[in-house]
């Protein structure tokens, strides 16, 4: 199984400042079709997860453009350009290249300083 | 609008069974595969099972294989999870989530609100 490792696990951020979350996979997430199936999810307190980013860098509909995804192979990053209060929550990366199983990172908790 | 509404959770003794349901609306259900993903209290997300849009394929996490069964009724726009031989470690919020049938990665793109299953004597 592919192991997804996120860092940091806790991220205190000042409002208006940038934030960055790293996600590493235990093997390359490039599929034979050339696509890389790495996704990012946001889970606000008391809510269900919401997909933000698919295939490394594609934002889902309605996702603010302050969220961006990048990376390749085994190293990926989710960036928030300017953190807002509504961004508080836990962020998970998830791979969809080598399944089953679909595997998630441990989660990164973003909180306001 | 898209809606996924889980039901059937509750408190159950170890070794007993429970069946979860997920009612879908607002989209063409038989164009989507469906996942169950769970989250133990205070913990991260764990994938549990998936069923293809037409029910032709099913996959399970090793932790539930042989105990849980995923199924769907496309005529009722409903997904199910039959959970047998429940253990304390199955205690979690169970989410259903859809994935578009043409998406090679079958990534969940929309999730329900979840239903809590507590396994305790």
- Summarize the biggest pleated sheet of chain B: 7 strands, mixed
In whole angstroms, how far apart are the ends of chain B?
A: 39 Å
Radius of gyration of chain B: 13 Å
* Shape assignment of chain A: globular
Question: Uncertain runs of chain A with pLDDT below 50, 5 residues or more?
Answer: none
Mean pLDDT of chain B: 97
Rg value of chain A: 13 Å
How much helicity do the residues of chain A have? under 10%
Uncertain runs of chain B: none
Structural write-up:
The complex is a heterodimer of chains A (113) and B (121). Helices cover 0% and strands 48% of the residues of chain A. Chain A has no helices and 11 strands. In chain A, strands 2, 4, 5, 6, 9, 10 and 11 form a 7-stranded mixed beta sheet that branches. A 4-stranded antiparallel beta sheet of chain A has the order 1-3-8-7, with no helix packed on it. Chain A is globular. Chain A has strands at 4-7, 10-13, 19-25, 38-43, 50-54, 58-59, 67-72, 75-80, 89-95, 103-104, 108-112. By secondary structure, chain A is mostly beta strands. Chain B has strands at residues 3-7, 10-12, 18-25, 32-39, 45-51, 58-60, 68-73, 78-83, 92-100, 110-111, 115-119. The chains are: A mainly beta (113), B mainly beta (121). Chain A binds chain B through residues 31, 33, 35, 37, 39, 41, 43, 47-51, 54-55, 60, 90, 92, 94, 96-97, 99-107, and chain B through 35, 37, 44-47, 50, 59-62, 95, 97, 104-114.
């Amino acid at each position: 199984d592919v192991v997804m490792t996120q860092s940091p696990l806790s991220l205190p951020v000042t409002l208006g400042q940038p934030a960055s979350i790293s996600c590493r996979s235990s093997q390359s997430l490039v599929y034979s079709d050339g696509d890389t199936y790495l996704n990012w999810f946001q889970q606000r307190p008391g809510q269900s997860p919401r997909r933000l980013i698919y295939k490394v860098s594609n934002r889902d509909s309605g996702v603010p453009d302050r969220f961006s995804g990048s990376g390749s192979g085994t190293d990926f990053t989710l960036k928030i350009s300017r953190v807002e209060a509504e961004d508080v929550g836990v962020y998970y990366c998830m791979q969809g290249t080598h399944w089953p199983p679909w595997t998630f990172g441990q989660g990164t908790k973003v909180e306001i300083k | 609008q898209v809606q996924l509404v889980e039901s059937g959770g509750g408190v159950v003794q170890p070794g007993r069974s429970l069946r979860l349901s997920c009612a879908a609306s607002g989209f063409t259900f038989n164009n989507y595969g469906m996942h169950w993903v769970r989250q133990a209290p205070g913990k991260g997300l764990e994938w549990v099972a998936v069923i293809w849009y037409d029910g032709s394929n099913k996959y399970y996490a090793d932790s539930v294989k042989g105990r849980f069964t995923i199924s769907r009724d496309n005529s009722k726009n409903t997904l199910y999870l039959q959970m047998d031989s429940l253990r304390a470690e199955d205690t979690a919020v169970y989410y259903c989530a859809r994935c578009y049938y043409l998406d090679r990665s079958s990534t969940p793109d929309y999730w329900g609100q979840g239903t809590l299953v507590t396994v305790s004597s």
